[in-house]
Each structure stands twice: as structure tokens, then as C-alpha cells.
Design brief:
alpha/beta, 19 strands, about 400 residues, globular, 7-stranded mixed sheet, 12 helices
């Protein structure tokens, strides 16, 4: 029998970090991917590990649990990379993970337009990769991915054959990791927004200056479901971004769509998408604060057969939960009177902190306070290119509620 490694020694050339005795090692063995700061022995050796470096994680009895990436600056101090303690995290390892992710998407989709990597669920913690045909956008929201961005970009090219790779290093998640904003083209070149055909519509995605990666693939199945409800009718798409719900409804036969967003740039992309699909004459845009625009539409007596509200995350974390639920309730209250009798209202949330029950209750209160009675006909989630780890309930962040309202 060999002795367990001394805490000062390296395993497979990596430093060792160890769980506290009360930490739940069993959960990690069963697939939970995170170790929080209060679960790890954080001494001067641990604090000296560079953010994003690899280490071998052991339980309190010094039994190895796998290779983790460590970031002493984050509340998630360690993220599981590989349950094999002798794993080597290099470009070949990245290529293997990317190949596995690609195999799933190629089985699901006929065209290379999808979320290729959904962070922990695809074995690449804190990393998002969206694919737009020959281009791909990486969001390295964990320190290890930021440190290995060149290897990650090259592995992506090798596995998928994309010619253009963009790094979109911005957003709240990077701030939580202590990372600076950084956006650049790592491989190839871009000549402007990219056309993305989806659900019969054509979207224009700005892969450099747009929100997130430029387009929200997660709503694809919900766009399709809503489009069926809007056939032949007038549609209002609030917080429309580049026209996700509105353009899909037009492609399915809606008579007219009104798009509301605070970003003039996003509305211009939406209008460009409408032109590309030959529907420019059926689109109206209104730029401004969504709440104010809904109030104005109500004062104008406007009514729509389908109203969709897909706001940004009002409750991205638990401290914002109560205020976020009030905001969702207000959205529902303002939107409900805009729905024609027998029409449909779609309310969406991408807030991690607001679970389905809390969001549904807030939406129902708002509809009731808007003077309407409702029938919940469908609940939608992100598409299958956004897989979920069962151990991370909040991975199922996206919730779309489809209501039919009475007169």
C-alpha cells in the first residue's frame, strides 16, 4: 500500500487542494461540479495558485476526486474539469470535449447554428460557445478558459472547421471571476452582422457588438411555439432584441409585428432581418424603455393577438430576487391589457434566482392585476442544445409561460 500524498506535494505535476471535513465529497463524486470557498481548505498554498490553474482535488481523507481548476478570487473556488486525477488538461483534452459536444448538436440540427458548448453541462466549466455556421463565439466566463483561450480557439477550429472565432469577454459572470472585459476576433475576420436562418425567419447577429454572443439560441423552440399562436394576427414583441419572437411570427404568417426594445442598434438589426426575409413592410419598431412603451401602447388603446415579453434577467442572483419578481409582475400587469380578447401572452424569464414556481406566481399576479383572467397552455424551456446538469437546478434558467387570456 502506498502512502497518501503529502499536502505539499504535487500529483501528476499539479498542486493539491483539499476539501474540509464537513464538505460533501459524495456530491462531487456523483457529479456536482463546484467547490465553494467555504468547502475548501484555503491556506497560503491555495491562495498562491494562479487563477485558472489546475490542481488535484482530494477529500478530507486525502482520496483524489479529480482535476479541478482553481480560482482563489471566486466564490466558486474550484470547478471540476475531469474526475480522473491523472488527466492532462491540454488542447487534445479540449478537442475531445468539443468533439463530444459537436456530436450531440449534429444529431439534433441540420444546420450548424446552435449552442455548441453550454458550460458545465458539456464538461467545459464556465464556458459558452455559440456557432453561427463558419463562425463561432466563445464566452470564457471562468478563469481557466480565459487563460487557455488560444488553445480553446484552435481546438474549436480543428474540431468544427469554423474559420472565424470571436472571444466575447464581457458580462457579469466574468466580473465574479475577477476577469477584465475583453472582446476580439481570435481567428479569421468578420465583415459585419451574420445572417442566421432559423424557424423560417432570418436574423442578423452582431458577433462583436451585440448582446452576449449576438443571438439567443435558447429561445428557438419557444419562438416556434409562439409563432403558431401569432399566425394571421398582430404581434407585439417587447424586449425584442434582434426580433426573435416577432420575426419568427412573421415567417409563420403573422400579419404584422411591432418590435419594442431600448437598443436602437438591436432594432436596426431586427429591421435588417425583416428586409432579408422580405417582410419589411410588416414590421414596425419602437425604440425606448419597454415599460414606458407598454404604458403608451395601453393609452393608445392598442391591442394585439399575441404579446411576448422577453426581458433581461431581473433576478440574476438571490439578492435581487424580490425586486426581480416585482419587475416580472409589473411586466405582466402592463402587458395583459394589450392582449386582444382570446389572444395570447408569452412571458419569459432568464433569471437564475427565480425558479419556475416563483416566476409563474409573479406572472399570474400581474395578469390578474392587469384585469385579465388566464389559462396557462404551455411552459417552454431552452432547447436541447442547452443541456442541463441535474445537480445544477439553476442550469434550467430559461422559462417561457404561454397564457391564453379571456375577454
Amino acid at each position: 500500500m502506498t502512502d497518501a500524498p503529502d499536502p505539499t506535494e504535487a500529483v501528476a505535476g499539479l498542486p493539491v487542494v483539499r476539501l474540509r471535513p464537513k464538505a460533501n465529497a459524495r456530491a462531487i463524486r456523483h457529479g456536482f461540479p463546484w467547490v465553494f470557498a467555504d468547502e475548501l481548505v484555503v491556506d497560503r498554498r491555495t491562495r498562491a495558485i494562479p487563477a485558472g490553474a489546475m490542481a488535484v482535488l482530494e477529500d478530507a481523507e486525502r482520496q483524489p476526486l479529480g482535476v479541478v481548476t482553481v480560482n482563489p478570487n471566486s466564490k466558486i473556488v474550484a470547478r471540476m474539469m475531469d474526475p480522473r486525477a491523472d488527466a492532462v488538461i491540454d488542447r487534445d483534452w479540449l478537442a475531445a470535449r468539443l468533439s463530444r459536444a459537436l456530436a450531440l448538436r449534429e444529431r439534433l440540427f441540420d444546420a450548424p447554428l446552435y449552442r455548441l458548448v453550454h458550460a458545465e453541462s458539456d464538461g467545459l466549466p464556465g464556458t459558452i460557445i455559440d456557432r453561427f455556421g463558419d463562425a463561432a463565439v466563445i464566452q470564457p466566463n471562468a478563469a481557466w478558459a480565459d487563460a487557455m483561450i488560444d488553445d480553446l480557439a484552435q481546438a474549436l477550429v480543428d474540431v468544427t472547421g469554423v474559420s472565424t472565432v470571436v472571444m466575447n469577454g464581457s458580462g457579469r459572470a466574468r466580473g465574479l471571476e475577477g476577469l477584465q472585459d475583453r472582446t476580439e476576433v481570435l481567428r479569421g475576420a468578420l465583415g459585419g452582422p451574420v445572417e442566421v436562418p432559423m424557424n423560417g425567419a432570418i436574423y442578423l447577429a452582431d458577433l462583436i457588438g451585440g448582446q452576449k454572443t449576438g443571438l439567443f439560441f435558447d429561445q428557438r423552440p419557444n419562438h416556434a411555439f409562439a409563432a403558431r399562436l401569432g399566425r394571421g394576427g398582430h404581434v407585439l414583441d417587447v424586449f425584442s432584441h434582434v426580433g426573435g419572437f416577432g420575426l419568427a411570427a412573421l415567417a409563420a404568417g403573422a400579419a404584422q409585428a411591432t418590435l419594442v426594445d431600448g437598443s436602437a442598434a438591436a432594432l436596426e438589426l431586427a429591421a435588417g432581418g425583416a428586409r432579408a426575409m422580405g417582410a419589411a413592410d410588416r414590421v414596425t419598431t419602437r425604440q425606448g424603455d419597454a415599460f414606458q412603451q407598454m404604458e403608451a401602447l395601453g393609452a393608445e388603446g392598442a391591442r394585439f393577438d399575441l404579446v411576448v415579453c422577453d426581458p433581461p434577467a431581473f433576478a440574476p442572483a438571490k439578492p435581487a430576487l424580490e425586486a426581480g419578481l416585482r419587475a416580472y409582475e409589473r411586466v405582466a400587469r402592463l402587458a395583459a391589457p394589450l392582449v386582444a380578447p382570446g389572444g395570447y401572452l408569452v412571458l419569459c424569464s432568464c433569471s437564475h434566482a427565480a425558479d419556475l414556481t416563483a416566476f409563474r406566481n409573479a406572472s399570474a399576479r400581474g395578469i390578474g392585476r392587469g384585469g385579465r383572467r388566464m389559462q396557462l397552455v404551455h411552459t417552454g424551456f431552452a432547447g436541447p442544445d442547452h443541456p442541463i446538469l441535474p445537480q445544477l437546478a439553476e442550469s434550467g434558467y430559461l422559462k417561457s409561460l404561454f397564457f391564453r387570456l379571456d375577454g
